[in-house]
Design a protein that fits this description.
This protein has four helices and three strands, in the order βααββαα. 46% of the residues lie in helices and 16% in strands. The model has no long low-confidence stretch (mean pLDDT 91). The protein has one domain: 2-Layer Sandwich (Phosphorylase Kinase, domain 1). One of its GO terms (biological process) is intracellular signal transduction. GO terms for molecular function: ATP binding; protein serine/threonine kinase activity. InterPro entries: Kinase-like_dom_sf (IPR011009), Prot_kinase_dom (IPR000719), Ser_Thr_kinase_AGC (IPR050236). This is non-specific serine/threonine protein kinase.
Length: 102
């Protein structure tokens, strides 16, 4: 679940960006793009409940391994990332925040 403080969004003028992210995750139908289950809000936060991805993210895996990924595993994650980006680009969407913890 992704929790976003409303105050933080307003200070950085990012409300539209969060709604765009929600819309993209709602329509995306690709095995390499995390789908959105539902959204809700509390007094202080906007919340996005996303599908569970077994194994977690690459940043957690790197910490667990304690060093660089083996080449075959790095190639696999890179290929999956490229396929996800290609899918999004076909819809005119550019992902601007790629990093191992996403």
């Amino acid at each position: 679940m992704k929790k976003i403080r409303k105050q933080h969004l307003q200070l950085r003028n990012q409300v539209e960006q969060v709604f765009a992210e929600r819309d993209i995750m709602s329509f995306a139908d690709n095995p390499f793009v995390v789908s959105l289950c539902c959204t809700f809000e509390t007094k202080k936060c906007l919340c996005m409940v996303m599908e569970y991805v077994e194994g977690g993210d690459v940043a957690t895996l790197l910490k667990h391994i304690g060093g660089p990924l083996p080449l075959d595993l790095a190639r696999m994650y890179f290929a999956e990332t490229v396929l996800a980006l290609e899918y999004l680009h076909n819809y005119g969407i550019v992902h601007r925040d790629l990093k191992p913890d996403k």
